[in-house]
Amino acid sequence: MSIPVRAKKHLGQHFLTDRNIARKIVNSLRPEGKYDQVLEIGPGMGILTELLLENEQYQTTVIDIDAESVNWLQQHFPRLENRIIHADFLRFDIGAYFKGQVGIIGNFPYNISSQILFKVLEHREQVPELTGMFQKEVAERVAAAPGSKTYGILSVLLQAFYDIEYLFTVNPGVFNPPPKVRSGVIRLERKKDFSLDCDEKLFFEVVKAAFNQRRKTLRNALSRYSPAGKIEEATLQLRAERLSVKDFADITRRLLT
């Protein structure tokens, strides 16, 4: 009998043990012809993997930095064949490995979950959908609306290109070992038109500058762009958390006039 994989604190591993929750996460994928490949990040002992392999709409590949998990998966999921990648997702070249569109799923390690989202954002042209588990605070931040205290850089940048749905909350008791916080499952579905009607590089810069000094009004937070005379006075008196994606895109266009 195989020895179960030992959860490693430095990798942020908390293995999901509830099969019903695992099925809810897997069933939240909506490939519907948008993609026929799925990449699972951090499969651990494969509670999601087993269910993913049941679906013939897509081919499943898994990636894990943990050698012990990779060895377990090789022993227990021969159907994966050569689709078990032993690598760090944050350094993984999505475009080199996958030639077409790919959906992403996972019970994501909490210590790198924001970095995973930023990487997906970087590869948004190839990733039409992501669904998975995050620390509840992160999940809520991603889905937050303008005006919320949790609304921030991650909220605006992801919502610029993806429609985001908070699906459900998961309590600590269904993990081994149990985390000290609750978890949240969200789905990101790329917008049909996911290009911005403004300079995207400047848009990213403006959003980050505005939230990096979120207690300041836009007049002060964006002072390096000399916004006076380009942006309405009423807008300059607002703080970043009051602005929608559309507002930030409008500001970006106006800064270039």
From TrEMBL:
Protein keywords: Cytoplasm, Methyltransferase, RNA-binding, rRNA processing, S-adenosyl-L-methionine, Transferase
Enzyme superclass (EC): transferase
Gene3D superfamilies associated with the record: Ribosomal RNA adenine dimethylase-like, domain 2 (1.10.8.100), Vaccinia Virus protein VP39 (3.40.50.150)
Domain Ribosomal RNA adenine methylase transferase N-terminal residues, every copy: 21-192
InterPro entries in the cross-refs: KsgA/Erm (IPR001737), rRNA_Ade_diMease-like_C (IPR023165), rRNA_Ade_methylase_Trfase_N (IPR020598), rRNA_adenine_dimethylase (IPR011530), SAM-dependent_MTases_sf (IPR029063)
Residues that hold S-adenosyl-L-methionine according to the record: H14, L16, G42, D64, D88, N107
Predominant place of localization: cytoplasm
Pfam family, any one: RrnaAD
Gene Ontology molecular function, alphabetical: 16S rRNA (adenine(1518)-N(6)/adenine(1519)-N(6))-dimethyltransferase activity; RNA binding
Transmembrane segments: none
Keyword Methyltransferase belongs to the record: yes
Localization: Cytoplasm
EC number(s) per entry: 2.1.1.182
GO cellular component, one term: cytosol
Domain of life: Bacteria
Annotated catalysed reactions: adenosine(1518)/adenosine(1519) in 16S rRNA + 4 S-adenosyl-L-methionine = N(6)-dimethyladenosine(1518)/N(6)-dimethyladenosine(1519) in 16S rRNA + 4 S-adenosyl-L-homocysteine + 4 H(+)
Function description: Specifically dimethylates two adjacent adenosines (A1518 and A1519) in the loop of a conserved hairpin near the 3'-end of 16S rRNA in the 30S particle. May play a critical role in biogenesis of 30S subunits.
NCBIfam families (UniProt xref): ksgA
Similarity annotation: Belongs to the class I-like SAM-binding methyltransferase superfamily. rRNA adenine N(6)-methyltransferase family. RsmA subfamily.
Name of the protein this chain belongs to: Ribosomal RNA small subunit methyltransferase A
Organism in which the protein naturally occurs: Anseongella ginsenosidimutans
Phylogenetic lineage: Bacteria, Pseudomonadati, Bacteroidota, Sphingobacteriia, Sphingobacteriales
